[in-house]
Amino acid sequence: MASDATKAPAAGGHGGPILGAAYTYGSITDKISLIVLTKDTPWSWLVGFAVGFLLLQVLLLGLAWTVAIGLGTWGINVPVGWGFAIINFVWWIGIGHAGTLISAILLLLRQHWRTSINRFAEAMTLFAVSCAGLFPLIHMGRPWFGYWMFPYPNTMGLWPQTRSPLVWDVFAVSTYATVSLLFWYIGLVPDLATLRDRARHKLIKLGYGVLALGWRGSAQHWFRYEMAYLLLAGLATPLVLSVHSVVSFDFATSILPGWHTTIFPPYFVAGAIYSGFAMVMTLTIPLRKLYRLEDFITMRHLRNMANVMLATGLMVAYGYAMEVFFGWYSGNPYEIYMLLNREGGPYAIFYWALILCNVLVPQLLWSERVKASVPALFAIAIVVNIGMWLERFIIVITSLHRDFLPSAWGMYYPTWVDFSLLFGSMGLFVALLFLFIRLLPMISIFEMRTLLPSPATTRASRGAAPAPAPATGD
Amino acid sequence: MAAREAVYGVMAEFDSPEDLLAAAHRAHREGYRQMDAYSPFPIHGLAEAIGFRRTWLPLLVLIGGVLGALAGFGTQYYAAVIDYPINVGGRPLNSWPAFIPVTFEVTILFAALTAVLGMLALNGLPMPYHPVFNAPRFALASHDRFFLCIEAADPRFDRQGTRRFLESLNAREVTDVEH
Q: What count of other Cβ atoms lies within 10 Å of the Cβ of residue A389?
């Protein structure tokens, strides 16, 4: 832990060190690369992966059922055409946003504490976007025609209607997935070279070698590399803001009460970052414990993430308040009814649960004692994850199920297939995440090295440095 | 054509980024130009020290972005105005504000692809074989050591002289690099 560490080299700024103990270039490399280059797979990894893998089977069952029988197996009906699929889509894509925020925006803002969580958060983005992309695809009913959404010359003489936000979504999400993949992979290349040089087994060496593209750490290469990385960060920053804005346009450009508001884009973006940080927190807290990474992901990181959650949570709360205010202020009877129905209608319990999860519980983060307690942070992060899912449930369902004419009203009840897809997508996410942790360095090794002081300056004190964690050999 | 040198170059190993940086500056002052430094992480000023000051990458990315914008808007314009015009309530066929989101996304996509592919292409990657990997301790360049390699292609290269010069630079070890 940070408190009992010797004079931490990377201390600085407020809120404690971003590196828990004194490391050298070699020991930091060993510590991170040996998580991957070892024959010992921890049992906790096996348990985690098994849970993910089992849930993945549930997803496959749900998908097979959907494809074989059709969308009639879902709970969607005529007033509520967008059920769990769209809720899950918005939830997952929002979770992804924290990864890009950490890797791109915090890089541009020179927040060095991001270094130990950015690789992991980028991987999380990638897997969350994979889960997100699945839902609109299967919601189309005939996912095998998914490529019709892209503009390509075809014998039908048709083009996608690019005036529709649903088509904007296709471009936004596919660009986001591609750029996230590039960003993640480019960040990995120097570390893949490290793994190539450290691996002993010939095939493993070959595998990492191919992926490392022959990276040799040349000064000219680093120069262009840093330039490319900076440019990618600059490109990803407006991209991430655009993606959730476009997602919110799916709602905001319609005329349904509760959806047709201009506050949606910023409110969705804030909610995305909120839920994403909650997910990063949910994942890093067990992982740092499991792999004894408390030196790299310190209390300072958790504290900073808690602060980001608190700030974005307040923005989201402002969004909820403004929804209520403008609904009332509009004087529009449909808007007013939508609000009354949200707060007192058949789904009211979920609305109040969402207020509890997203607005009330996170206020605990004002307390320094709560921010210093890892279990409390973990619990709050879980609550926010649930709250953000409920938020999308409320947005999608309450506006659709009672819109203008009472004769067109209806109720929405999800079926077991809906639940299997929701929990199954979590399985896909968890399984991918555990594979990533086992096969690739989950912390950027080369960026961690840059946090260290040079051996030239610490040569005198080197003898006093604590020994790194014992290497568990390959 | 001149006879091929017997070695690719001579390589010196250093303990710290400062030693490498100082050595790179010295070598450049000595008149060596065909050289490269290798390090486990980017070192500020190292590329400049070996005389490498600029890259075309930002310009390429700008061009990629502009092409992306043109391709994104152009495709939508072609589809909506030329190839398949539909009159929707008398609204203009070239309803450009509605085309902006897709244009923006395609701009970012092209620029990002150019940044990554351009960086790899300018760096000559992927490159499965490179002589520096023949240096016995070069695997440490991705671990905790810092290397400077003066290449035989340099006009001032002299196997013994260059070796003596590198040895004078606080190097930990100096070795020949085979082809």
A: 23
Minimal CA separation from B47 to chain A, in Å = 5
Q: Are A280 and A98 in contact (CB under 8 A)?
A: yes
Based on its alpha-carbon atoms, the radius of gyration of chain B, rounded to whole angstroms, reads 25
Q: State how far the Cα of A256 lies from the Cα of A266, in Å rounded to an integer.
A: 19
Structure tokens that stand for A308 in this block: 């980001």
Q: What are the helix (H) ranges across A199-218? A: 202-212
A398: left (phi over 0), alpha (psi -120 to 50) or beta: alpha
Complex ipTM, two decimals? 0.90
Classify strands B35-38 and B146-151 as parallel, antiparallel or unpaired. antiparallel
Q: Indicate whether this model's pTM tops 0.90.
A: no
A219–B39 CB contact, under 8 Å: yes
Percent of all residues in chain A with a pLDDT value above 90, rounded to a whole number = 47
Task: Judge whether A91 and A388 are in contact, CB under 8 Å.
Answer: yes
Q: What are the domain boundaries of chain A?
A: 25-148+161-454
Residue to substitute from A162, A226, A248, interface B, most B β-carbons within 10 A:
A162
Residue A306's identity, in one-letter code, is A
What is the CATH topology of the domain spanning A25-148+161-454? Formate dehydrogenase/DMSO reductase fold (1.20.1630)
Map tokens 């992979």 to a residue: A185
Would you say residue B41 has pLDDT above 50? yes
- For residues B45 and A297, what is the distance between their CA atoms, to the nearest angstrom? 29
Q: Residue A409 region, left (φ>0) first, then alpha (ψ -120 to 50), else beta?
A: beta
Cross-chain CB nearest to A182 (options B36, B79, B116): B116
Segments in A330-454 forming alpha helices (H): 333-344, 348-355, 368-371, 374-401, 416-439, 445-450
Of B38, B104, B144, which is closest to A25 when you measure between CB atoms? Answer: B144
Dihedral sign for Cα A273, A275, A276, A280, please: positive
Q: Do A231 and B39 touch (CB under 8 A)?
A: no
